[in-house]
Amino acid sequence: MDLNLIEQASEAYEPQLGDNDRARMSFFKGLWKLQQEYVERAQASLDHALPGEEQLLAWYWDEKPLFLMAPLTINEELFLSALKDCAGYVADNAGVADEAVSVLRGFDWKKLLNEVGLEQAGYDPGSWLVGAVEAAAKLIATQASTVEAGVDEAGAVGIVLSCALKPMLEPAAKQAMSHYKPDRDAYESHAKPLRCPVCGGHAGLAYVGDTPSGEGKGRMLYCTTCTAHWEFERIRCAHCGTQSQGKLHYFHVEGDPAHRLYLCDECSSYLRTAFLSELPTAFCMEVEDVIMARLDHVANSVAIKSQRKDS
């Protein structure tokens, strides 16, 4: 991530933010700074051999994630350090409940990793995160008076796991994306990958603007697990793949055309999407992720659900 770009973009949004959003942005800026320190440390020790470009592109178009075909080895010592630092930061700055703070400060990360291992995190990080959060909930429950007492605390541990894992994956994802260079004919003759070509996760965000294949405004998907991004069709659901125009549409809050929900009535999914030409500042995915968090609430609102049901 580019901390200078983050500062520039966040400052541009500052006058528009309410107190709660301003506090959230401040929290994430501190977290991004911490994560970037670990990105640089992971980059320095990166040892992930890539196959030739022809093989990479074959996996890309066959929708075989790179990490699944060529697993990444995650440095356990570095990851443990990231977990402890992220846990401390979240405990100090996220405003979570006292019970969650207590769990984060005393959680045995080494014990968790001994139980779940790290191998799967190197070839299927999304599934690993799900399993790790479930294992963490069980560990917490054994120390609580009831199973329910550990639910919220496990959520806080899940946030830490995700925040610490991303810097371990980002250098390898960036290295891989620099080698994905399909020509324009390939883009026009293939369906684009539905899942992240690096880690296999679903896209968490999208943006519309210039794309690697050339002319016009295209759509790029962004993986919030490993930070990879890839080109995708403008008229296609990034979850179920439907291209039925009658099932796909955009929605935005009045006064904010730069940030929209891409809604699919076929599978009831949505994707937060930034339109680069409408942004008030240079594009920064990390900042846009925070700004567009409000769209998650909009997507789950009664009004939107009713509107989609009647359409």
Q: Characteristics of this structure?
A:
FdhE-like fold; globular; 6 strands; six-stranded mixed sheet; alpha+beta; 51% helix; 311 residues; single chain
Task: Explain this structure.
The protein has 311 residues and is of the alpha+beta class. The protein has 2 domains: 18-177, no CATH class; 184-310, FdhE-like fold. Helix content is 51%, strand content 12%. The chain is built from 13 helices and 6 strands. A 6-stranded mixed sheet has the order 3-2-1-6-5-4. α1 (3-13) runs antiparallel to α2 (19-44) and α7 crosses α8 (125-143). The model has no long low-confidence stretch (mean pLDDT 90).
Topology, pairings included?
Blueprint: H1 3-13, H2 19-44, H3 53-61, H4 66-69, H5 76-93, H6 98-106, H7 109-116, H8 125-143, H9 151-177, H10 184-189, E1 205-211, E2 214-222, E3 229-232, E4 248-251, E5 259-264, E6 270-275, H11 285-291, H12 293-299, H13 302-310
Helix pairs in contact: 1-2, 2-5, 2-9, 2-11, 5-6, 5-9, 6-9, 7-8, 8-9
- Mean of the pLDDT scores? 90
Overall outline:
globular
Structural class by sheet pairing and helices: alpha+beta
| Helix count, DSSP H or I runs of 4 or more residues | 13
Straight-line N-to-C gap = 40 Å
Beta-strand share of residues: 5-15%
Low-confidence residue ranges: none
Total number of domains: 2
Question: What is the share of helical residues?
Answer: 40-55%
Total count of strands: 6
Widest sheet: strand order? 3-2-1-6-5-4
| Radius of gyration from the alpha-carbon trace, in angstroms | 20 Å
Secondary-structure element sequence? HHHHHHHHHHEEEEEEHHH
